[in-house]
Design a protein that fits this description.
Keywords: Membrane, Transmembrane, Transmembrane helix
Largest sheet: none
Number of helices: 4
Protein name: DUF3040 domain-containing protein
Number of domains: 2
Helix content: over 70%
Oligomer: single chain
Distance between the termini: 18 Å
Pfam family, one: DUF3040
Organism: Pseudonocardia oroxyli
């Protein structure tokens, strides 16, 4: 449980974050982003990873496969997080 001083400090930090970037603050507080731009970016990472994986598998490049798998996993995770389907830490 937070005391009144800690709550005031937390509110001040939230206000500063909100003034700096409302979308980021909304992401921190609710786990959702209303803008479609972050979801599109994450989806692009996912697609890039999957396409890269298919291309790397045809060439049989181990490094290419590893990089593509990481891109696909990061893109998919970010897309799920930004779409609100998954909220990390809850």
């Amino acid at each position: 449980m937070l005391n009144s001083r800690e709550r005031a400090q937390l509110r001040a930090i939230e206000t500063a974050l909100w003034l700096q970037d409302p979308a980021f603050c909304r992401l921190l507080t609710t786990g959702r982003v209303r803008s479609a731009a972050p979801r599109r970016f994450a989806l692009a990472l996912l697609v890039l990873g999957v396409v890269g994986l298919l291309l790397a598998m045809t060439v049989l490049s181990t490094l290419g496969v590893a990089v593509s798998v990481v891109l696909a996993l990061v893109g998919g995770g970010l897309w799920l997080w930004f779409s609100g389907a998954v909220t990390p830490g809850r």
